[in-house]
């Protein structure tokens, strides 16, 4: 069995579910449940070595803190940002989430764009 190479780190369960609904490729989505301890971060560093790691967090102070933590431990990680107008990944429209994931080179479901702004 082949190991999934891409990993997205998100803050909450609702973020995880929303991201999973948009993706059209196998991706491991790890939920930090908001904050993450340095010990757990070090564990993740060992577990995820050699994989493509991306961080997608809310556009608020807690989300910025998560990005900073991962920059320190995973300097090669990709960082995906939602528009600050939506503040939370879970609150961002599906089409916006699909757009930012596509820009980060993820395969997304085309239906996500077809929902348009009337979501």
Describe this structure in words.
Helix content is 39%, strand content 16%. The protein has 119 residues and is α/β, with parallel strands linked by helices. It has a four-stranded parallel beta sheet with strand order 2-1-3-4, sandwiched between helices. The radius of gyration is 14 Å and the shape is globular. The relative contact order is 0.20.
| Largest sheet strand order | 2-1-3-4
- Envelope shape: globular
Radius of gyration: 14 Å
Structural class: alpha/beta
Main sheet attributes: strand count, strand direction, barrel closure: 4 strands, parallel
Helix proportion of residues, in percent?
Answer: 25-40%
For the residues shown, what is the average pLDDT?
90
Span of the ends, CA to CA: 37 Å
The helix/strand series, from N terminus to C terminus, equals EHEHEHEHH
Strand content: 15-25%
Total of helices: 5
Q: Residue ranges: pLDDT <50 for 5 or more in a row?
A: none
Count of beta strands: 4
